[in-house]
Amino acid sequence: MIEVRKKDWYIKWVSSIILMISLLLTANNLFPYNLFIGVFGFIGWVVVAILWKDRSLILLNTTSLVIYINGIIGYLVDK
Description:
Elements: H1 7-27, H2 33-52, H3 55-78
Helix pairs in contact: 1-2, 2-3
C-alpha cells in the first residue's frame, strides 16, 4: 500500500533541510546568507506548527524567525 503524505510532512522536511543548510552556512561564517536562507526554514516550521496547533513550536519558530529578520534588518541598515 502506498502511503499518502499530507502537506505538513513535505513542508516539515523541506524546512528542516533548509535550516540545516542555514546552519552549515553559519558554521562556515557565510553571513548574511545564513540569515536569508534560515528565514525560509523558519517560515515553513511556523506553518507546520500552526497546522499542528502546537503552541511551543509556534513560539519557538516565530521567535527564531523574528530574531533572524532582526539580523537581516541590522545587516541592511549597516550596509
